[in-house]
Design a protein that fits this description.
Distance between the termini: 28 Å
Number of strands: 10
Helix content: under 10%
Order of helices and strands: EEEEEEEEEEH
Radius of gyration: 13 Å
Oligomer: single chain
Strand content: 35-45%
Shape: globular
Structural class: mainly beta
């Protein structure tokens, strides 16, 4: 597997099921989520509503609920769900066995 644009951010077992871990990057803090079915997603760790730490939210399916005001975001698209409006940036991840890798090109694009 080519890893030219990918860097390892940790192992699947570093993240509890239905939980998150954070990675500090030059563009800010990114939350890496693991679902109950071991899917992994990366989104910015800041709710656009009032800046709540999404990494501390409740993971349900492929969504996370902000711990401050219960806004729900899709981990796949970053879009707020229901009547709420807004979005958080998402970042490409892939798994190589237990390793989780993040795409540097999506991070660079977000920095522009």
């Amino acid at each position: 597997m080519s890893t030219a644009n990918w860097f390892e951010i940790g192992k699947l077992t570093d993240i509890p099921r239905r939980g998150a871990r954070c990675v500090d990057t030059p563009i800010g803090r990114i939350a890496i989520f693991r679902t109950a079915t071991d899917e992994v997603y990366a989104i910015e760790d800041r709710c656009p509503h009032q800046g709540g730490p999404l990494s501390q939210g409740i993971v349900h399916g492929a969504h996370v609920t902000c711990p401050l005001h219960n806004w729900v975001f899709s981990l796949e698209s970053g879009l707020a769900q229901g009547a709420d409006e807004g979005a958080v940036r998402t970042f490409a991840l892939k798994r190589d066995g237990e390793r989780i890798l993040m795409d540097t090109t999506t991070m660079l694009a977000a920095a522009e």
